[in-house]
Amino acid sequence: MSSSHDITLTPQEQALIMRLKSFRVPEMAHILEEQLKDPNADLNTFLERMTAMVDAEWQARAANSARTVRLF
Description:
Elements: H1 11-22, H2 26-37, H3 46-71
């Protein structure tokens, strides 16, 4: 049985991941990559999948913001 990490992304999918990273939304890129590699991800609605990406990015930025505030 292969794991989801064994799934290779298409060139189009890889380009999309790179574009998201260039837009400086790395958590969204990470979650999208996980979803693309998960054969069961399509069981979730588009809204559920998009919400997971946005929530991950939101939480990462909030955590980063909290760290920055603590430094000052």
